[in-house]
Structures are given as structure tokens and as C-alpha cells.
Amino acid sequence: MKKFPVIPLIVAIVALVLSVIAGRKVTEARKEMIDNENRIAWKHVSMLGMDKFIADLKWVKLIQDMGKVKGKMTENAALYFANALDSITDLDPDLTKAYDMGSLLIANQLPDRAIALLAKARKIALEQSWSWPYYSGFYAERFLPRKGTVSDAECFKQAQAFYEEASKLSGRPCYVDHAWMRLSTRDAGDCPVKQLAAQKDFVLELKPTYMEGMEGVEGAEGMPPEGAMMEDMEGGMEMEDSAYSRLKARLLERSQALAIELLDRMAEESDPQKKDKLESDLDIVRAVFEEFRPKGRVCQNCLFAYGAGQFFCPKCGERVEAYGYCRECWKQGKMVLLHGDFCHICGAESP
Ligand SMILES: [Zn+2]
Ligand SMILES: [Zn+2]
Predict the structure, then answer these.
(1) Which ligand is nearest to the CA of 329?
(2) Ranges of each domain in the chain
(3) From the CA of 304, how far away is ligand 2's center (Å)?
(4) What is the pLDDT of residue 223?
(5) How confident is the model at residue 26 (pLDDT cuts 50, 70, 90)?
(6) Which ligand is nearest to the CA of 344?
(7) CA of 341 to the centre of ligand 2 (A)
(8) Averaged pLDDT of the chain
(9) Does the CA dihedral 143-148-150-155 come out positive or negative?
(10) Which ligand gives the minimal distance to the CA of 314?
């Protein structure tokens, strides 16, 4: 009797298992291509997993080549890297470090190629990053003008548009929004007070102009008080992350710091004309603060937020309008801070 054909059977089973695995891989790869419409044009369909592998190998080679350059990058070397990065990201469009590190590597010599590399990332990578438009802006602002191929004004215009784009993406750090504001108000020049005034106008432009669900409601004209808007709107968390909220907070900080600086300079200044100039600067700074004033009380002189039961500003010593203490107890010489509408010591209702 012949032996049962064990080996052909095992081969058949292995082949079956492999075909199932391969089938899954193809389905996955297809799904990935359908998910991103730009991927339909992707040429390396037949290589499937292999192209990512080759991209990794090329990337390792590129890192080694980077070591050889040892900080002495020439334009020729940058050109070599730019081409290598292009081919790596052709093979694996999701190798994010190739965009991040790669663009940084060539930006100084070839800012236009660095920007083009990031434009590719923004077009075809599945996972988008705020850093891509942000760094595009950074290269356009800092490196592109040095090449002299494009006018400075055009470079800054490009950078401004990139920063604006980055300011709309989640997960971005605050300096992205700050860069957008700084560059958009560059015409104000170097004077910090003029800058602040220009930035106030810029931020006011970003102020949300309508409330969801408020359109068509009669008597809903004009803006509700700021605080009400932040709290009442659904998705308030998203609003907190908006460029408007972030830049508003920035200007509040900035105006407080500037007010204190100007007060210090005024105290030292003996020339009455210069003193007048400082005083009018201070008025501008206070007006910016007033525009975005947070809830709570602040010293009219230095804009410091003082607390309940304080009669003088702890920062600058100016008299402030006291609040949040029991008037009745104070008449007896006792300072009682209120935690509700009535005094918890004497029961008097607070004014
Ligand atoms: Zn003060
Ligand atoms: Zn009391």
C-alpha cells in the first residue's frame, strides 16, 4: 500500500494560508489607496509592502550620507539630498521623518525644494501634521529671501499664507499662531507699542462674528457678552483652541507686561516731553487690554489682576476699587472675604 501523500498536503495547506494572508494584504493596500483620493495615482501598486522596505533602506543610506557631510552642506550636496528625499517619499509617502528632517536638512541651501517637499507631504501623506505648513512658512520667511530669486515681499506673503494654514490645524503649539500674527503685522515696525496696536486690529478681525443657532433669532443682533459666548456654545473646547482665543490671551499678556515696563520707564524719566509720550503709549496699551479684558478686576494703572478685599494694587500700589469683602465687618475692623451673597460672620447681605 502506498503511503499517504503527507508532503503535498502540507504544501497545499501552506499555500492556502499564504494566499489568505496575501489576499488580506492586497485588500488593506487597496483600502489605503481608496481612503486618500490622491493615492489613486500612486504608481507602485504592484510592489505593495516592498516599496516601504526599500524606502527605509534608502533612508538609512541617507542618514549615513548626512554623517559624511558633517555640517558642511554645499548646494550640490543639498541637491543630492533633495533628489534622494523625493525618491524616498515616492516609495513611502507616509515616511513623515523624511519630510520633517529632510526638509530641515536642505532648507538653508534649497529653501524652494524644502517647501516643495513639504507641499508633497501635505498633498499625499495620510496623516497630516501642523508642522508642514508651519515649516514651509518658516523656510519662506527665513531662507527664501536670502536666495534672491523671489522678492522679500513675495516671500513674506507666502510665509504668511503658510502660517495661516498651520494656525487652523489641531495639535499645533502656540508659537504657530504667534508667528502668523507677527508676520501679518510686520508693517508696524519695531516699536512694541505700535506692534501691539496693529496686533489688536489683526486679532479683532478673527473674532467670531456669529453664534451657532443664533441666525434668524429676532433681537439677536450684535454680539453677546464675551464670557457668555465661550460658555454657552457647544464645542467650547474647540473654540478655546482657536487662533482668536490664543492670540487674545497673547495680547493680554503682552499688554500687561508692556504697561509695567512703561510705568517703570515713566518713573525714571525726568524730561516732561518724553514722559508725555510714555503716557500716551500707556493709553494705547491700556486700550488694547480693555479690548480683550478678562473677567475679574484689574488695576487701572498697571493692569494687574488684584484679589478680593484688596484696597491697593499689590503690584504698583495704586488705590483700587475693593470688592468681595463684608462692609459691615470692615466697619468693626475685621476683614471678612465673602464666599456668597451673605457674610458668613455677621449675616449682612453684600452690596
Ligand atoms: Zn497696579
Ligand atoms: Zn460681615
Answers:
(1) 2
(2) 54-184, 194-208+241-302
(3) 27
(4) 45
(5) low
(6) 2
(7) 11
(8) 84
(9) positive
(10) 1
Mean pLDDT is lowest, of 92-96, 146-150, 210-214, for 210-214
CA of 349 relative to ligand 2 center, distance in Å: 8
Measured in Å, residue 8 CA sits from the centre of ligand 1 at 91
Q: How far is the CA of 123 from the centre of ligand 2 (A)?
A: 66
For domain 54-184, is the CATH number 1.25.40? yes
**Which ligand does the CA of 299 lie closest to?**
1
CA dist list (Å): 269 to 192, 258, 262, 284: 19, 16, 10, 19
Q: Which ligand is nearest to the CA of 339?
A: 2
What length does the chain have? 351
Quote the cell numbers at residue 342.
451673605
Q: What pLDDT, on the 0 to 100 scale, is given for residue 126?
A: 83
Per residue in 242-257, pLDDT tens? 999 999 999 999 999 9
In one-letter notation, the amino acid at residue 61 is: K
Q: Say how far apart CA 348 and CA 327 lie, in whole Å.
A: 8
What b-and-e string marks burial along 15-52, b requiring 16 or more CB atoms within 10 Å of the CB? eeeeeeeeeeeeeebeeeeeeeeebeeeeeeeeeeebb
Q: Say which ligand is closest to the CA of 331.
A: 2
Burial class of residue 217 (count of CB atoms within 10 Å of its CB; 0-12, 13-18, 19+):
exposed
Residue 350 CA to ligand 2 center (angstroms) comes to 8
